[in-house]
Amino acid sequence: MARTRSSSSSSSNRWRYCHPAYYLKRPKRLALLLMAFVCATLVVWDRKTLVREYEVEVSDLKEQINELRNMLDDSKDIKGSQQMYKSKREILEDPIDKERREKVKEAMMHAWSSYEKYAWGQDELQPQTKSGVNSFGGLGATLIDSLDTLYIMGLEEQFQKAREWVANSLDFNKNYHASVFETTIRVVGGLLSAYDLSKDKVFLEKAQDIADRLLPAWNSPSGIPYNIINLVEGNPHNPGWTGSNSILADSGTEQLEFIALSQRTGDPKYQEKVENVIVAINKTFPDDGLLPIYINPKSGSSSYSAITFGAMGDSFYEYLLKVWIQGNKTATVRHYRDMWEKSMKGLLSLVRRSTPSSFAYICEKNGNSLNDKMDELACFAPGMIALGSLGYAPEESQKFLSLAEELAWTCYNFYESTPTKLAGENYFFNSGEDMTVGTSWNILRPETVESLFYLSRITGNKTYKEWGWNIFQAFEKNSRVEGGYVGLKDVNSGVKDNMMQSFFLAETLKYMYLLFSPPTVIPLDEWVFNTEAHPLRIVTRQEGGRSQEDEQKPVIQFRNRRAGLLPGRD
Predict the structure, then answer these.
(1) Which end of the chain is more exposed for a tag (fewer CB within 10 A), N or C?
(2) What is d(CA 115, CA 484) in angstroms, rounded to the nearest whole number?
(3) Hey, what's the torsion of the CAs at 519, 528, 146, 446, to 10 degrees?
(4) Does 314 participate in catalysis according to the annotation?
């Protein structure tokens, strides 16, 4: 009995915890129970909330994954479209252009292999005697002048061999009185262009070495440079035949190269020297923008002499425009453009037309008299004017572009008017006679082809390619010999000389190759050519002379020898 009663009592005690009356008599336990209930509820609620948040996050992640998949599919489609576009572009490229481009490349290979065989490391080749000559003190002028042409044409093996010579054999420590102008445009310009194309620092280091040797030339009272300097001793001076004056073109055609050198090295001294020249000239710059070819380096003032867009004047005007382009046309370099536009007003005053065919030509000026003579050297002007026309308002732009086309027609006829179809050195325009050749030699000059290149790029007119091809064929017929290419002593008789000028490889063949290349090869909105046709990268110049290098620009890469060079982003 007792045992039965105890079991019943234990069962009753257990169930009493479920009876409300139990807790009403014991408020502390009721409070504890309520607290336990609330805590349990919160735990359950929190778990549900976490589950819901997790479900939302999973849903978001799934959406992001789907978006990424779509983007990847779109990217594949875009890449496919780009490849398709590229294939179509290659298919649509004029096969005649490709064939002609290959012919020009073959001409470059003939010229280069002849230099390599008979004059390696010397300044220039004498093809008839198959020997070399050091016209510039033994600085390897042809080799350095050719670096960027080899690169642009995709001739990698030849470029690398030339690069090794520059790295191991090029020595500027020579007791030689160098032309500041020629050394700058050929050597400094050629090395900087090779650096901009390849990013190989050996070219930049060599460019800085030779530039440092040239710098004392600017140590004149006015800042106008002396035109000759000894590469070992310094001691700058001017040639006696100029009356101790500096030459306009020789003094105003180092800005592109030395500004670029400061930008690439971070050392402002090069830029400061050459920009001081423009500051000095601008103090007395005339309203018509036309300067005589001689400047006094002591006073900075012009000396009485001829005004011309030909020899000794030409590239001064070219660089006013091109420094503006090199700085990406910012306010910092606007004064260069302003000076150039003044000079173009002056140029208009020198333009005359022949009779009976109305060929437009640019006169030379002596005092108040005009001389109806035009150098082939002045045939760079159509290209310069076409390039500069892009900075004018529409009406003015068309006026200058039309003038550029007229002048290019005249320059082309310098070639067409001779028995050899090669131009003489200069021409005279006499009433009723149109043009007659004056100095009758041809030394493989590039200026007309240069202008045809610019006009072809800017207008898209295929006529300029046809003219260029005719000139190329004339060079092939009259100037090609077993040992390279030579000039003519007389464009009427066709008698040959014995010199392959370095600028034939640097300029004539390069511009000819680019004339038949797509506009994506050295595009004009990314590159500016120095007066020796060495392309330099455009770098935006900011206030205070600061420059902003665009790190996103691709380094141009080699393709196969047949394709030549194309921008790496294509």
Answers:
(1) N
(2) 7
(3) 80
(4) yes
Longest C-alpha distance within the chain, in Å? 155
Residue range 495-532, pLDDT digits in tens: 999 999 999 999 999 999 999 999 999 999 999 999 99
| 212 annotated active-site | no
177-179 sheet: strands from edge to edge: 177-179, 228-230, 234-237
The burial class, CB within 10 Å (0-12 / 13-18 / 19+), for 362 is buried
Q: Are residues 254 and 181 in contact, defined by beta-carbon separation less than 8 angstroms?
A: yes
Pairing of strands 480-481, 484-485: antiparallel
Residue 546 clears pLDDT 70, i.e. is over it: no
Binding site feature residues: 531
Q: How far apart are CA 482 and CA 486, in angstroms?
A: 10
Residue in 124, 182, 250, 341 annotated catalytic? 182
Using only C-alpha atoms, the chain has a radius of gyration, in whole angstroms, of 37
375 catalytically annotated: no
- Given the residues 250, 314, 364, 497, the one annotated as active site: 314
Amino acid letter, residue 149: T
Query: Look-up: residue for tokens 């735990």?
Result: 43
Paired residues of 485 in beta bridges? 480
> 145 falls in which pLDDT band (50, 70, 90)?
very high
Q: Give 510's DSSP letter.
A: H
Give pLDDT, residue 263.
98
Judge contact between 544 and 529, C-beta under 8 A.
no
Residue holding tokens 């018509």?
288
And the tokens for 276? Answer: 């001081």
What spatial distance separates the first Cα and last Cα of the chain, rounded to whole Å? 105
Report the alpha-carbon angle 99-102-106, nearest 5.
Answer: 140
Q: Rounded distance, CA 529 to CA 511, Å? A: 10
Pairing of strands 131-133, 177-179: unpaired
The one catalytic residue in 447, 490, 497, 532 is 447
- How far, in Å, CA of 178 to CA of 434, rounded? 40
Return the percentage of the chain with pLDDT > 90, whole number: 78
Residues 253/317, Cβ–Cβ less than 8 Å: no
Rounded CA separation 473/119 (Å): 25
d(CA 492, CA 71): 67
Alpha-carbon distances, residue 423 vs 352, 365, 413, 443, 470 (angstroms): 20, 23, 8, 9, 12
447 is catalytic: yes
Residues flagged as binding site for Ca(2+): 531
